[in-house]
Amino acid sequence: MVIKVFVATSSGSIAIRKKQQEVVGFLEANKIDFKELDIAGDEDNRRWMRENVPGEKKPQNGIPLPPQIFNEEQYCGDFDSFFSAKEENIIYSFLGLAPPPDSKGSEKAEEGGETEAQKEGSEDAGNLPEAQEKNEEEGETATEETEEIATEGAEGEAKDEEEAAEGEGEPGEDEDS
């Protein structure tokens, strides 16, 4: 099964280009096999995409915009549905694929076994108050230092302004008549 992503390589819309890049980038990063099909340069691709997007998924004008995602002949969705599936961590079911063995959707996770990261996370949870206390103390010190620097800076600026004002009030010193 190959995922097909219909894109427009010569789209003038920045929004469409960004959406296409996000879909393609995500699939590449997760090593999901896919085929990028250009609808701008190939009339057959454009026609096939438009005919196979279900009616309820088409926009009001009737012309679906890229990116559109299919698993072989089966429609998966557009960018918005892809984004939602990604946020809900159900991208493999959205694409009609079995999750990889090392993902959260694998059998081990379904059996309720803890992963290494979960075990480490529960061990670190006991040290939270100490770390929080330390951060608060460091924050107070940083705030005090910032206030001191700001005060020194303000005093220096006031002194510079006074000197500049004194230099302006004496006409005739630099004039050569």
From TrEMBL:
Amino acid composition bias (Basic and acidic residues), ranges on this chain: 104-122
Record-annotated membrane-spanning stretches: none
Source organism (scientific name): Pongo abelii
Any one GO MF annotation of this record: SH3 domain binding
Any one of the GO CC terms: nucleus
Protein name: SH3BGR isoform 6
Skewed-composition ranges (Acidic residues): 135-177
Stretch list, region Disordered: 94-177
Family: Belongs to the SH3BGR family.
UniProt keyword list: SH3-binding
